[in-house]
């Protein structure tokens, strides 16, 4: 099993989790679901969102077959306007490669984490393990507690060809 800061954190906190190794490249959430043989609704991707007037980015954690609803997220957190940074900007803001951005790898950075409320329908979900090629399955309650995530309806199903991965 791959060991990194995320797996060490989960082990230290005695949180049950499963780690899955995938190809060490940027792959979509839908492809992750296919490779793991699980329902895509169980795979959650972390989308970096920036505020129009600066400040810390927001981590929107949403189901793989969905896209961030920027208006809903902005209304939920009391912002007028939010935007999606480029992949390069997201990597610079987080210090992580796209495909490996994880709220668990960014706990010390103080980012606001907003988890789509659809996650509450599941006991466990899959998220990135903080590096490309590592996927973690863990209890939703543990993810919320560790990241102090707020939950809200912040995503909509993706239309063909508009994936935010």
TrEMBL record:
<protein>
    <recommendedName>
        <fullName>Cys-tRNA(Pro)/Cys-tRNA(Cys) deacylase</fullName>
        <ecNumber>4.2.-.-</ecNumber>
    </recommendedName>
</protein>
<dbReference type="InterPro" id="IPR036754">
    <property type="entry name" value="YbaK/aa-tRNA-synt-asso_dom_sf"/>
</dbReference>
<dbReference type="GO" id="GO:0006412">
    <property type="term" value="P:translation"/>
</dbReference>
<feature type="domain" description="YbaK/aminoacyl-tRNA synthetase-associated">
    <location>
        <begin position="31"/>
        <end position="145"/>
    </location>
</feature>
<keyword id="KW-0648">Protein biosynthesis</keyword>
<dbReference type="GO" id="GO:0002161">
    <property type="term" value="F:aminoacyl-tRNA deacylase activity"/>
</dbReference>
<keyword id="KW-0456">Lyase</keyword>
<dbReference type="GO" id="GO:0016829">
    <property type="term" value="F:lyase activity"/>
</dbReference>
<comment type="similarity">
    <text>Belongs to the prolyl-tRNA editing family. YbaK/EbsC subfamily.</text>
</comment>
<dbReference type="Pfam" id="PF04073">
    <property type="entry name" value="tRNA_edit"/>
</dbReference>
<dbReference type="InterPro" id="IPR004369">
    <property type="entry name" value="Prolyl-tRNA_editing_YbaK/EbsC"/>
</dbReference>
<dbReference type="InterPro" id="IPR007214">
    <property type="entry name" value="YbaK/aa-tRNA-synth-assoc-dom"/>
</dbReference>
